[in-house]
Amino acid sequence: MAVIGTDITRAQILLDAGELVAIPTETVYGLACNALNAVAAAKVFAVKERPAFNPLIVHVPDMRHASLYVSAVPEKAKVLAENFWPGPLTLVLKKKSLIPDLVSAGLDTVGIRCPDHPLTRKLLETLAYPLAAPSANPFGYVSPTAATHVNDQLGSKIEYILDGGISSIGLESTIIGFEDDVPVVYRLGGLSLKPIQKLIGQVTLMLHSSSNPSSPGQLKSHYSPIKPLVTGNIKTLIEQHYGRRVGVLSFKDNYYMDHQFILSANGSLSEAARNLFSALRKFDEMDIDIILAEYVPDTGLGLAINDRLSRASVNRR
Ligand code: TXA
Ligand code: MG
Is the pTM of this model over 0.85? Predict the structure, then answer.
């Protein structure tokens, strides 16, 4: 198992040596390496068992550092970074050749973000290079929102996990790119669309139906627990699955089942977002056959929560 701790110097020594370290962010935990080191990046793909066509996100301490690695930042990207960095927003921008092709999966763009977590910001400010970090889970599985989640699955493959507590947002970053200067949202995430649109106007949604930007829909579902998950009206689902060992995942209502999670008893979408991934992980440890889940209201962070539920479900909408 990996060592879990808060020692930034230990993290730095490992990263300087081209090794991997799991890092906390406000969205989810990342599996980090020196983003300028292709050999280190190859280890990330290997540990995650991630297909090489799926690019990594590069993490920087601020916009000044970002501009070392990207060229031609559109005005709207600057406005977004000024307003939402550090925070749960990834900008897809034209990359400089300093970023290895492996990191960007051969694309001429790179996803870049400035995470909002004190430990990781301190680490990034200490390092002489940016960190490439996908979510620290095996490819296709639910993202980790706690150090123990990372340890459960990747603990035997990495040496150190920097522990920053529970991720305060709990959903991956919102990803925005620019095609002919038109803002395009590739992934709904921890930053809602409304504040984005308020600043830069209309955006186009181009959500991958898989995590592969170049061949959507060809991979099996993503963000998935091992247990099958179906969505619908919970009461109806409970009737339909009568006699089976079920786990119920509700937004705010109590169904008084033996195995259930209520995402937010007072109906808060941000609390629901924070609880979603750990609830899915807990169901996987329970003695149940199937997860019965309901969608949350389709507003604000609810859009991203429903996106993850849909990708996790066997009856994808
Ligand atoms: O919140 C997050 O973004 C977390 C934390 C650790 O920062 N990271 C994360 O990374 O979720 P990952 O690798 O699990 O998801 C990255 C997504 C992938 O779906 C990938 O296809 C997309 O970002 N992506 C990365 N670079 C891209 C690019 N140049 N163009 C389009 N999509 C890109
Ligand atoms: Mg991921």
Answer: yes
- CA distance linking residue 54 with residue 73, whole number of Å: 23
Specify whether the CB–CB gap between 162 and 281 falls below 8 A: no
Query: Who surrounds ion ligand 2 at CB < 5 A?
Result: 135
Q: Tell me the C-alpha distance between 144 and 170, whole Å.
A: 8
Q: What is the DSSP string of 195-215?
A: HHHHHH---EE---SSS-SSS
User: Is 231 touching ligand 1 by the criterion CB < 6 Å?
Assistant: no
Ligand 1 contact via 90 beta carbon (within 6 Å): yes
Write out residues in the chain with pLDDT < 70, as ranges.
209-221, 316-317
What is d(CA 159, CA 292) in angstroms, rounded to the nearest whole number? 36
**Ligand 2 centroid, distance to 190 Cα (angstroms):** 13
User: Of 285, 291, 307, whose CA–CA distance to 149 is shortest?
Assistant: 285
CA distance from start to end of the chain:
38
Ligand 2 centroid to Cα of residue 64, in Å, is 26
